[in-house]
Amino acid sequence: MGNVFHNEMNMLKALAILLVVSGHLEFSLLGIFPPYSFQLALFFFISGCLFKDKYLDNVAEFVDRRIKSLLVPYFWYNLFYLVVTVIIAKLTGKFWGQPITLKNFFITPFLNGHQFDLSCPLWFVTQLFMTMITFLFLLRVLKGVKDNKIFHLIIFSILGFSAIPLSKVIHVTPIALVVIRTMMSLFFVYLGYFYTHFIKDKYDIFTTKWLGWMIVIQSILWMFNRDYDPEHGIGLSYVLVWARFDDQIIVPVLTSITGIWASLFVVKIVYPYLKDVKFLQDMGNVTYHIMANHLLVMYLITAVFLKINGIPISERANHDIYWIYNPVQTTYLYFVLTMVITTYIGVAQRKIKQFLFDRKA
Length: 361
Fold this sequence. Notes:
The chain has 13 helices and no strands.
C-alpha cells in the first residue's frame, strides 16, 4: 500500500477520534450523523482496511503483534487509571469505578471495559483485539471453504445484520455482550478489507451521484432518529458496548455504512489541502492515547473551571463521568483543549518509547 493511502488512513483515524471525543461532549462534527451513530464502526472499518493478507499464513506473528500493540499498553493504562482513581477518591470522596479486584482488573476489560470510569473508552481496545483475532481465523476458514469475495461478504453481512436481532431474543449476559459486539464489528472489519482489496483501485464511489444517494439514504434514516427527544430512545445512535439499540433492528448498521462512506468522502476532499498538517498526522498516529486520556483531561479542565468559579470540587462527584462545566459556553473550548493536550501526550509517549528503544538497541 502506497504512502498516499497510508496517509489517508491516518487522516481517517484522526477524523474518527475527533468524532469520538466530540460525541462524548455531545455534539456532532457531521450534523446529519448524531454522536455514537457510526464512529466505532469506522474504527473497525479502518482496522479491516489495514489488515495484511500475509497474516493469514502467519497467525503467531499476527497474535503477537496485536498483543504488543493493543493489550500490553491497555494493561499499563489499566494500572495507571487504578492509581489515578484511588488518588481522586482520596481527594474527593468518590471512587470512579468498580471495586478493585483481580476479576475487575483482568477479566472485566474483556467483558465491558468499564472497571474505571476515566478509562472506559478503552473498552474498544479489548473488543478490537478479540474481533481481529476472530476475523483472522474466520477468514482463514472461509477461504478454505470457498475462496470467493462475494461468498465471504455474504457470511460477514449475515453476522453483522444478525447481531441486533440476536440481542432482542436472548438474555444479554456479559458473554452474550461480547458475542453480539463481535458479530457486528466483524462485519465492519470485513467491509474495510473488502474496500481496500476489491473497490478502492477499481471503482470510483466518491462521485457527486454517490454523494446524492448518501444524502437521500441518510435523510430517510433520520426519520428513525430520536436523539432530539431522549424519552423516545436513541434512534440513529447506538451504544455498542452494552448492545443497546433500543427498538431498532437494521438502522444502526445502515447509518454506520453511510457514516463510513461520508468519512471516506470527507477525507478524499480535504486530504490534498491538509496532508501536510503535521498536527493531524500526529493525531492519527496517537488515537490510542487520545482514546485513553481524553476523559481524564476533560475531568481536569472541569476541576480548573470549578476552582476559578469558586465551586467546591465535590460538585463534580454529583454528575456522571461525561459532565462538563457550563456546556453551552465551554463545549468547544473543552474540545480544542482536549484534542491538543491528548495528542501531544501521545506524541510525547511515542518519543519516549522510541528513545528507550534506541538506547536499548
